[in-house]
Amino acid sequence: MEQIASNKMFDGEQRRYQHRSETLNCDMQFALYLPPQIREGTVPVLYWLSGLTCTDENFVQKAGAQQFAARYGIAIVCPDTSPRGEGVADDADGAYDFGLGAGFYVNATEAPWNQHYRMYDYVREELPSLLAHDLGLDHGRCAISGHSMGGHGALTIALKNPGQFQSVSAFSPICSPINCPWGTKALGHYLGHDREHWKEYDAVELVSQASEENRLPILVDQGDADNFLEEQLNTPMLIAASQQCDYPMRIRMQPGYDHSYFFIATFIEQHMQFHAQHLGVANVEL
């Protein structure tokens, strides 16, 4: 890893790194916020996964999460949303919803995408392994969150790996990509035509399959004025699936809020409190 930026923030440090990713076969960048408590010992970790068109910088510049990370002593890791660089395949038409900036947190199986687009393994394995050395991060206390495409990523990665995370939350997640235009385009290209394979990356399907002993605390916030709600996000399907199998999930419809970072900034404190509670941070009340 090479540190390429550092800014003091709320008595902690907002950093940016670059490194060579063996999983993605390209150079990658990610952001890392270290709270002031890191000077006294190890701290728990929250992974944040951003949405379509984003990079590792959107969340750290717009959400205002660092002040709460500093309060509760939680590090925040923000990976990029896709592989990048020369030779990395992109949408032929340059569309925003596929290719660069739109990795969908899956392991692509179809050429040419399978040469680089393995964001699932990057977030689940390579990045935690990279961060396990000499930074004071306690990966035994780990949570994950995200927005839109990143909300889909957070839910599916956590549901598939419940032993790796203590809690998961999402803003405006793509709840069932097998049933929306964004998802069918991306999964069709990355994974091929077998829709059964797509179900491995669909939160509604995974919630329905989750065993009782592997259930995680989940918080989802969705604005009811989100212009993507009806066509792309399928929040009612996640509500129905969680109710049908009695999964202990809290899904809040927030009146008047849209899909933007203004929405995220409004409720990010509550999400940080939620994760702090499940990460064992002392004296946290919801």
Key features?
286 residues, alpha/beta, Rossmann fold, nine-stranded mixed beta sheet, 10 helices, 32% helix, globular
Question: Kindly state the mean pLDDT as a whole number?
Answer: 96
Q: Count the beta strands.
A: 9
Which strands sit side by side, in order, in the main sheet? 1-2-3-5-4-6-7-8-9
Query: What is the 3D form?
Result: globular
Give the N-to-C terminal Cα separation. Answer: 37 Å
The domain count comes to 1
Radius of gyration: 18 Å
| Main sheet: strands, sense, barrel | 9 strands, mixed
Structural class: alpha/beta
Order of helices and strands: EEEEHHEHEHEHHHEHHEH
CATH topology: Rossmann fold
The CATH architecture category equals 3-Layer(aba) Sandwich
- Please work out how many helical segments DSSP would assign: 10
Corresponding CATH superfamily: Alpha/Beta hydrolase fold, catalytic domain
CATH class: Alpha Beta
Low-confidence stretches: none
Assembly state of the chains shown: single chain
- Level of helix content? 25-40%
Q: What percent strand?
A: 15-25%
Could you characterize what this model shows?
Helix 4 (149-160) links the parallel strand 6 and strand 7. The protein has a single domain (2-278), classed as Rossmann fold (3-Layer(aba) Sandwich). The radius of gyration is 18 Å and the shape is globular. By secondary structure, the chain is α/β, with parallel strands linked by helices. It starts with a strand and ends in an 8-residue tail after the last helix. It has ten helices and nine strands. Strands 1-2-3-5-4-6-7-8-9 form a nine-stranded mixed beta sheet, with helices on both faces.
